[in-house]
């Protein structure tokens, strides 16, 4: 499918993600599927990652589009989106702050670090991320989301946070305000 094959018929919602698939995303999806010639079902997770990286989350139309592309039932894609906490069914902030909470980071202060990130981003530290398709707590201006995650594979430099694609190591609560300021639009 190409972007031109996904144009919305007159009178349909224009905000469906599947109606706005750009040619570059469609090409990346086709390239990813080509790596799974025996079972295209195996391309489900790579396609979900591509989709979410482009749109920020996966809506119902995205689930249906990916399922159709892979010859699957929508429930086969829905079960992945709702099982893996990395995927979201609603938008998160423009900048996503993931604070590691596994043992090394927890012992090194990641709980205080998450609280400080929430405060610096204008998020109530008591807000909790429920995972399974929900967006993590997000600032009122939509610029930041903060969530706890399991191991970021940098135990030797704990505590750590992954901000979008940038790993920040050996963090202290005092580091947080300047880091958050550096990601403000």
Q: At the first level of CATH, what is the class of the largest domain?
A: Alpha Beta
**Please, how many helices?**
7
The secondary structure category is alpha+beta
One letter per element, helices H and strands E, the order comes to: HHHHEHHEEEH
CATH superfamily descriptor of the largest domain: Glutaredoxin
Q: Helical percent range? A: 25-40%
Strand order of the largest sheet: 2-1-3-4
Classify the fold: give the CATH topology of the largest domain: Glutaredoxin
Description:
The protein is of the alpha+beta class. The protein folds into two domains: 3-83, no CATH class; 95-182, 3-Layer(aba) Sandwich (Glutaredoxin). The chain has seven helices and four strands. The chain has helices at residues 23-33, 44-55, 60-70, 74-83, 103-107, 110-121, 176-182, and strands at residues 95-100, 144-149, 161-163, 166-168. A four-stranded mixed sheet has the order 2-1-3-4, covered by helices on one side. The chain is elongated. The protein starts with 22 loop residues before the first helix and ends with a helix. Residues 1-13 have low confidence and may be disordered.
Keywords summarizing the entry:
alpha+beta, 37% helix, 7 helices, 2 domains, 4-stranded mixed β-sheet, 185 residues, Glutaredoxin, 10% strand, elongated, disordered N terminus
